[in-house]
């Protein structure tokens, strides 16, 4: 019988152990990640009570606590990203960051055992430090804080100091970030730094744990209407947040249970979520976390004045350079326009001789007739004398006009031949006339052969011809009623020649037979154009180098001039 009882006992123990393990395997594990600004062991012990409470209230679930040091944000963010936690209890800045980065939801706001759901920052120094007695006296000293992203441990103190006229990054000799807030207190008490800041409640907690004597510290700008030592204004307390993947029914149940959970003094540990807009404003104001400026923006902020001076100086130098180049271009245009008055003295004299020959011969004949009539006193007809005299005056006036034109245009120049690629000349002339193109709303299309070869001639004479043709095209389109006006210039090759085409969208050219005749022009005369000499001299220049200039076509759609020049090796 004894062996039977022993067998039954072993069987019962086995079944009990198996049932416990099976029940444990059926439990759903929920992990709560918690930031800590004090010792991890103390933090874990404190929050384990809350975890046990939730496990008891939710059969089928077991709640675990994972404590992360506050300076180690990257670990917490990685755990949230990898879904290693289900809920998080964090300081407000971290809660807002996780909301922006991973779409977590702020569910509850922590309430203190003194029934306080707000936190602030304490700015303090050692009681043995006799030189620091107010905020102003902090200037020139060293300062300790938790980290650039800690709300109570630094950001609230930074904002308060700034409002009081103290710029920590300029007025303090140094700022050190120690992470753990108890290290900040120890550094100040031991004289390693002149002052520091911690979140509200830290000093009281250290006093409670006998790690600090209240007589060792001196609080600056102390506020009296708050349960804890305080220097700054207040913001909402720590946050209980859920992840995006959370079970909404479970979260609703947990919120209800946590709102009922009380401290030993029967004060609620949690309250409904408060407004965190003021914290959000601080994050943007001081460019924290996801609002952090890129390095170039930070550099710009730190070096604003020298950067502005450098930009203004660079702008001034650029303007001086542009003015100088504009002057050079203007001078070059004036030189070309002067040269365009006459290309060759020999050519001009030849044309002038031809123009003057006919009126001078006619004047000579009229003068001879008039002389004969005056010799014959008895047969002299007064009306005939007057008519002949009038004709003589008109022909003389015509000669005077021709000579006047010659006086305006006659000049000398030296011709220097060179071998060059004419694409550069085309680009230079169109660049010089950008203003005119813009003023008359004329679009420019260049289609230049990549390797047209070389021409041998005077570069400035080619510029003179191009300038004359392009300006003629612009003038033809200046008063055009067409919606779109375009100047097309192209270079190409053909049977050992280099071709330059200049086409516009101006009106049809009238009197084509007189187009290349000297002093024949339908344009209004000015100091540089309209005297009928440009196209004549342009053709003479091109022909003097073995090429030709012709009007290829002209219609209501526009006109095209073609320059042909020999290509040289």
Descriptive notes:
With 569 residues, the chain is of the alpha/beta class. It has four domains: 2-115 and 240-280, Periplasmic binding protein-like II (D-Maltodextrin-Binding Protein, domain 2, 3-Layer(aba) Sandwich); 118-235, Periplasmic binding protein-like II (D-Maltodextrin-Binding Protein, domain 2, 3-Layer(aba) Sandwich); 345-409; 417-566, Heat Shock Protein 90 (2-Layer Sandwich). It has 18 helices and 20 strands. The chain has helices spanning 2-25, 40-57, 73-81, 92-102, 151-163, 168-171, 181-189, 202-208, 248-260, 277-285, 295-302, 304-339, 345-375, 382-409, 423-432, 434-439, 459-478, 534-544; strands spanning 28-36, 61-69, 87-90, 105-110, 118-119, 121-126, 142-145, 174-177, 195-199, 217-219, 235-236, 239-242, 270-272, 417-420, 442-447, 455-458, 485-494, 497-503, 548-555, 558-566. The chain has a six-stranded mixed sheet with strand order 2-1-3-12-4-13. It has a five-stranded mixed sheet with strand order 8-7-9-6-10. Helix 17 (459-478) runs antiparallel to helix 18 (534-544).
Features:
569 residues; 20 strands; 5-stranded mixed β-sheet; alpha/beta; D-Maltodextrin-Binding Protein, domain 2; 6-stranded mixed β-sheet
What is this entry, summarized?
This protein is an alpha/beta fold and 569 residues long. The protein is built from 18 helices and 20 strands.
The CATH superfamily of the largest domain is known as Periplasmic binding protein-like II
Strand line-up across the major sheet: 2-1-3-12-4-13
Question: What is the CATH class designation of the largest domain?
Answer: Alpha Beta
CATH architecture of the largest domain, by name, is 3-Layer(aba) Sandwich
3D shape: elongated
Largest sheet: 6 strands, mixed
Kindly, what is the distance between the CA atoms of the first and last residues, rounded to a whole number of angstroms?
A: 126 Å
Quaternary structure annotation: single chain
Strand content: 15-25%
Indicate the structural class.
alpha/beta
Number of β-strand runs: 20
Global mean pLDDT = 82
Q: Please mark out the parts with pLDDT under 50 across 5 or more consecutive residues, or reply none.
A: 20-24, 524-532
Helix proportion: 40-55%
Number of domains: 4
Gyration radius, rounded: 49 Å
As for the CATH topology of the largest domain, it is D-Maltodextrin-Binding Protein, domain 2
How many helix segments? 18
